[in-house]
Amino acid sequence: MKPAKYKIAVSGASKLDNCLSRVAELSKEIGKEIARQGCILITGATTGCPHLASLGAKKAGGLSVGFSPAASEISHIKTYRLPLESYDVMVYTGFDYSGRNLLMTRAADGVIIICGRMGTLNEFTIAYEDGKPIGILEGSGGTADLVKYLLKRPHRKGASLVYDKDPKKLIQKLIELIKKEKN
Predict the structure, then answer these.
(1) What Å distances lie between residue 152 and 138, 146, 147, 160, CA to CA?
(2) Are 65 and 42 in contact (CB under 8 A)?
(3) Is 170 exposed, middle or buried (0-12, 13-18, 19+ CB in 10 A)?
(4) Count of Cβ atoms closer than 10 Å to residue 57 Cβ
(5) d(CA 34, CA 129)
(6) What's the pLDDT tens digit per position in 24-48?
(7) DSSP 3-state percent helix, strand, coil across the chain (nearest 5)
(8) Does residue 59 contact residue 23 with C-beta atoms inside 8 Å?
(9) Between β-strands 110-114 and 89-92, what pairing exists: parallel, antiparallel or unpaired?
């Protein structure tokens, strides 16, 4: 087995009600493409887009790492009611959602934004402020579709961003951006 190229975090809506109707399919495809490109998928170990991406990565034979807001497996399942089955490695942060978001985004080489609400916005702003390469799945709804508007007047330069509607092209663009940033 070849060593993984990069760690790519998928941030997105845990509930799909404000997303594009085919966001579930697109989320799975993002996960598959991360695995196909030899990268490790990282998520906040939640439901919705991140979980679907993890299922896609698993189906493609990829490695999936979850960063849980819970302090233990029992709390992850019983208190937070979050999935476990698609993860190869689970990190129990014990820092609730906002602390988990910080650890998850900082563990990644790049971040993908799919749809999303406030948690996704929080993960986006952390990645942006940290200068992480970010890929936006255009037209997926929610936070992803607000990013260009939010960045019209940034106070200071943050991360480099790439946009695409196609999961395969988006992952390819993000990997190129990560390579450029690391060299």
Answers:
(1) 16, 10, 9, 14
(2) yes
(3) buried
(4) 30
(5) 24
(6) 999 999 999 999 999 999 999 999 9
(7) 45, 20, 40
(8) no
(9) unpaired
Which of 77, 55, 59, 57 lies closest to 68, judged by CA? 77
Contacts of 168 by beta carbon, 8 Å cutoff, 6+ apart? 29, 33
Domains of the chain: total: 1
Containing domain of residue 27, as a range? 7-182
Residue 141: Cβ-neighbour burial (10 angstroms; 0-12, 13-18, 19+):
buried
Residue 80 contacts residue 71 (beta carbons within 8 Å)? no
Closest-CA residue to 105 (of 70, 78, 77, 132): 132
**Residue 70 belongs to a domain:** yes
Q: pTM for the complete prediction? A: 0.95
Residue 79 pLDDT grade (very low, low, confident, very high; cuts 50, 70, 90):
very high
User: Which one-letter amino acid corresponds to residue 26?
Assistant: L
Instruction: Evaluate whether residue 1 is within a structural domain.
Output: no
Report the distance separating Cα 101 and Cα 95, nearest Å.
9
